[in-house]
Amino acid sequence: MNIQELNPVARELLNTVEGYEGAFEGAYNIRQDSGCAGRRSTDNIRIESKPDGKPGLEIHVAAGTRDETVYIPAVVTHGDIRDVAYNDFYIGAGAQVKIVAGCGVHTSDESESRHDGIHRFYLSPGSDVMYEEKHVGTGEGQGIRRINPVTECWLEEDASLTMDTSQLGGVSFTERETHANLKARSRLIIRERLLTDGSQEATSVFHVVLEGEDAGCDLVSRSVAKGHSRQHFVSRIVGEARCHGHSACDAIVADEAVVTAAPRLDALSPDAALIHEAAIGKIAGEQILKLRTLGLSEEEAEARIVAGFLK
Amino acid sequence: MIRLENVFWTLPEGGDIIKDLNLTIPGGKLTVVTGPNGGGKTTLAKLIAGLVKPSAGRVRLDGQDITDLDVTQRARLGISFGFQTPVRFKGFTVRDLLETAAGRELDFDTLCDITGKVGLCTMDYVDREVDARLSGGEIKRVEIASVLARGTQVSIFDEPEAGIDMWSFRGLVDVFNGLKREKRTLIIISHQQRLIDIADEIVVLSGGQVRDQGRREDVLPGLLAGEIAGFCPVGRKEA
């Protein structure tokens, strides 16, 4: 298959989630409606279908790879599809790579459009991964647009993983689950941005085990809930050794929306330093007032504050 | 020129903070409003900027009745307001705030010019968030910079010196002197003599009313005598 076989909806979704404008630089695999709409490996990044016959990919990044990017978008372009993909990433020692994994689901009728992406990351010692994941739902249909991402990460000594996830509109239901296990001196940074509106519902569950000495995790979730939407944030950081763990849940609620946050910290070692911060509330009236003194209307001020918050 | 005519402002729970205030603030000049704590200075500033509305009376800008205009409308007419306690924003960078204030994208040189005036290096600050990680002095400078970025005809600063360390005070004085040279209308709420010293006009507000007003050279001597006696009404009598 080649990249020309993308349908117009897929092109639009890819543009939104990956900035696609007709081509990808470097390695890529485009998943369209459970099929492959284009794939390219490079000298250092090998993309193959899963050998066990399960839907999905194995992505091997060679040791020592520097400054390369691999794109693995998945799009569901109409209703009545439940797409499931198991993607396993094997990152070689000392490799430095960026992985862009956008996902878009579209339905223009009453039927459900769904993508379940199960991503597993195996980071060899000293490797460094920047993982970007952008989710979007589109289409005029009343059907449900559902994305359920599961991410499992194993970080060996001195490895580093930054997860930057955003879901800023259109997805009816999301259940995000992220599990991570960190060996000595490895680092995990998670930045989640989430916007829900209408009757949408989003749950994010993070479970991080800091197993090795001097492992560190910084997990920050920023979200805005509007309309009648509901969000649930659940985090658990377990410190099994001398380590640093920080989680923060910042949420703006508006209208009749509901946000719950349930952070948990388990210090299983006296040298585990674990912190959690949570703040849930309306946009502060003084913030709106400040922007109004700069000439913005109340509505413009709210929009600007939300845009900045979720940037 | 800003005019307040028979203005009252009453606390929601009762009690007049501003009482039948009549005041004319000249255009194109630097007016410092000073007076004892609780005298109504901040309320006066908010009444002009539209952050609070008078319980009675009228507010005029260059003859136009702006009493019923809200904050946004007054801002668009060319009134800027620097908060005594600056507001913090998660996710908003210094650049975001200054560009919002200016109503357009700002190039590096313009950003440099604005932040330089308040003693901040653009390189160090432009991408920093205006959140709790900025110190009190830093965020105060950003607040003043947001007013400068607007470049409006009328600028009101509520205690701009609060949080500014004494080593940077010279820079603050230079900022206001620069705006004076541009013939902007400046209203500064302040107790600081170094700001009072550069005023064209001084208004002394006490008990919600104008106790004294006039050219600096006329008002300042009485103000200094008052400082010796204290602002206690009993002290005034004894003086």
Describe the protein.
The complex is a heterodimer of chains A (311) and B (239). Chain A has helices at residues 8-18, 285-293, 298-309; strands at 27-32, 35-40, 45-49, 56-61, 68-71, 74-76, 81-91, 96-100, 103-106, 113-123, 128-138, 145-155, 160-167, 173-182, 187-196, 201-210, 215-225, 230-239, 243-253, 258-267, 272-281. Chain A has one domain (3-309). Chain A is globular, with a radius of gyration of 20 Å. Chain A is built from three helices and 21 strands. Chain A has 311 residues and is mainly beta. In chain A, the strands form two sheets. In chain A, strands 3-4-7-10-12-14-16-18-20 form a nine-stranded mixed sheet, with no helix packed on it. A six-stranded parallel β-barrel of chain A has the order 1-5-8-11-9-6. The mean pLDDT of chain A is 94. By secondary structure, chain B is of the alpha/beta class. Chain B folds into two domains: 2-78 and 153-238, Rossmann fold; 86-151. Chain B contains ten helices and ten strands. Chain B has a six-stranded mixed sheet, sandwiched between helices. In chain B, helix 7 (169-181) links the parallel strand 7 and strand 8. In chain B, helix 3 (94-102) runs parallel beside helix 6 (136-150). The radius of gyration of chain B is 18 Å and the shape is globular. Chain A binds chain B through residues 222, 250, 284, 286-287, 289-298, 304-305, 308-311, and chain B through 49, 51, 70-72, 75-76, 80-81, 83, 86-87, 89-93, 96, 100-101, 103, 146, 150.
